Amino acid sequence: MLTIAICEDNDRERQHLQSLLERYLNNLACEARIVAYTHGEQLVANFQRGEVSILLLDVLMGDDMNGIEVARVIKERDPDLPLVFVTSSTDYAVDSYEVRALHYLVKPVTEASLADALDRCKGAIDASRRRIDVVSDRETISLLQSDVFCIEAFGNKTVLHTCASSFTTYVPLTKLIESLGPSFLRCHRSYIVNMDHVARVEGKEFLVKNGARVPIRTNGRAQVVEDYHRYVAARLRAQAGH
User: Fold this and answer.
1) pTM summary value
2) Contact, 126 vs 107, CB < 8 A?
3) Between 89 and 7, whose confidence is greater?
4) How far apart are alpha carbons 139 and 152 in whole angstroms?
5) Would you tell me which of 9, 14, 149, 193 could form a disulfide with 61, CB atoms 3.0–4.6 Å apart?
6) pLDDT tens digits for 126-179?
């Protein structure tokens, strides 16, 4: 069952969002519950990882913490939580990318715009559950694709790196990438990088958010960097609702 949380300090706006949500869920015959918060501090105090499926968060609240600050705390606890900002201004669109917001709804929120945002969130939930199965040390290992920040090949071995561990298999990169999602980019003859984990491009390398570095091929570097920037731009447009 989905749990959708709303954090909005304006009573009328919060009730409007809840009404639209109920209509959306009824149309889909989707089993879900809606939890409403009036202040960011209240949300932070009550938030536990895994208890919320989707979060709708107002950016400009009259609290000590604005929506961006609340989002930073929430994302530290649950990095994969689908987050949608709701606001009367698009001034925070770039900040929303920092906390990996999935969408950016501008008030007044319409039924169609909310449905689009929720459809994206459901797609992200499905993607976050997408797995890759490989044989490692004679055992079949099932990894969440979202946990893999890069894949490295050397000799006849291939290593899938996650923040927690690494797993060695003998499936070649060309075969593995066929089953990976759109966030994975073949950036080098011996490397695939998960662009969702990239912090920035530094010269001939991708700097990953955990501090690791993934090389970019010399021949064709410009195309690799362009593909990465195109992916980032597409995410920013999605967040802004375009």
Assistant:
1) 0.63
2) no
3) 7
4) 19
5) 9
6) 777 788 998 998 899 999 998 999 999 988 999 999 988 999 999 999 999 998
Nearest partner of 94 among 229, 237, 224, judged by Cα? 237
Highest mean pLDDT among 8-22, 67-81, 87-101: 8-22
In the numeric block, the tokens 């990169």 are attached to 173
How, if at all, do strands 213-215 and 205-208 pair?
A: antiparallel
What's the distance, Cα to Cα, between the start and end of the chain in Å? 29
Among 121, 159, 177, 103, smallest CA distance to 3 is for 121
Residue 202's DSSP bridge partners are 205
Structure tokens at 47: 């938030």
* Both structure tokens of 240: 């802004």
Number of other residues whose CB lies within 10 A of the CB of residue 62: 10
Say if residues 202 and 212 touch (Cβ distance below 8 Å). no
Contact 196, 79 (CB under 8 A): no
CB 187 within 8 A of CB 213: no
Of 122, 118, 176, 175, which Cα lies nearest the Cα of 148? 176
